[in-house]
Amino acid sequence: MDEYKNYESLIEKYVGKNIDTILKEQYSFIRYPFIDPGSVYKGNVWDWDSYWSVYALFDYMNRKDDPCLSKRVIEHAKGNVLNFLDHQLEDGYIPMMIEVRSEKEQEPYLNQKHKEGVLMNMHKPFLCQQIVLISEYIEDYEWIQFAQNQLELYFDCYNKNYFKDRSGLYVWCDDIMIGMDNDPASFGRPKFSTANIFLNSFMVMELDSMVKILTHMGNKQDSVKYLEQKNALIRSILEECWDPRDQFFYSVDVDIKTRKYDWFHQGLGAFWKTIPIRIRTWSGFLPMYAGFASAEQAEAMRKSYLDKSLFHSPYGVTTLAKNEKMFDLSATNNPSNWLGPIWVVANYIVFRAMMNYGYRREAEEICRNTLMLLGADLDESGTLHEYYDPFSGHPIMNGGFLNWNILSLNMCRELKETEKTENVKDYRSQM
């Protein structure tokens, strides 16, 4: 890693100089301080974006002895959560994004549409994860004690509107603001038809976080319910989303039923619960990140990462396999492009997935490639961008984007912590 040490230092200095661009103060009906991604995203409170910003900033603060900065980041991190809880509706719905569109509006646009009966997605499963992230960092859960009922309503809303009993999986309503904006497994498909591996893997972690929250609140009895839901969801993902033929985790189509017409289709019906949507995206690695993939599955996924016809790139992990017909590197916002460009959050998640299963060499490679990508961008442009070309490393769009780019520093620290220890379990020894 020594040859890339200069890039690590360069990125760290850049983060320090630009933290103020993402730490925002309350205004209008956004009543608490919050964090936005930077660049073109000004004044928006986003769900998973704010989580990853906090995740990265907490690690960054461990590098610094700056009590004032630490206090400020913690205040803004709590503000992310409090802003979303502040705009929870009576049925438990929480919007994916809070934006002040005009001075005349009194609540988020997404809440307005939900009240009108428009079906749409809700806050991605990062609310409880962010609460645990903050509470573990400050070693205190007291600040969120008031919210138990709200959090239960949040899960109730998910289970009522986005859970399919037959498959045991969660579905997106549509392709609006799903994180991986134009993931072909969901983008352009019918409403409530896709049980996305992204959504379900992170929901496993969200349920696990709810267990931790309730346990710290002294409510172990209720925590058992969420633990059972988590374990049931894992079983459904392993049964429905793992494709033994392709050795890959896929999103699946749940719109499966016998459609009878008059006297037709009276015999053997559609007894299968799902159909795999055989499109390889980086989110297939999420069961490794969440830690419930088997050792054999992890080894197959490792080979998919190394396959140069699929995800492997000199700058990290392509967000869509290169041999998919939808692979495209166009510069686009709304939706952002996840059809192949390098996103540092995807790099980090696959890095962490490899570390979880003892694949240190692959993790080191992803870290080096990410440092090279961002360091070269700083050398050439003086800033960081939202996503990058996987072949040239050139930025595609949105200079000034900070957010999860900071995760490049997390990779460096995590590798150094395990360099001379046996903290990373080598699952390959069990195969």
UniProtKB/TrEMBL annotation:
Record-annotated Mannosylglycerate hydrolase MGH1-like glycoside hydrolase domain positions: 84-396
Pfam families on file: MGH1-like_GH
SUPFAM superfamilies: Six-hairpin glycosidases
InterPro entries (UniProt xref): 6-hairpin_glycosidase_sf, 6hp_glycosidase-like_sf, Glycoside_hydrolase_63, MGH1-like_GH
Keywords: Glycosidase, Hydrolase
GO MF term (any one): Glc3Man9GlcNAc2 oligosaccharide glucosidase activity
GO BP term, example: protein N-linked glycosylation
KW GTP-binding (keyword) present: no
Family membership: Belongs to the glycosyl hydrolase 63 family.
Cross-referenced PANTHER family: MANNOSYL-OLIGOSACCHARIDE GLUCOSIDASE
UniProt protein name: Trehalase / alfa-L-rhamnosidase / mannosyl oligosaccharide glucosidase
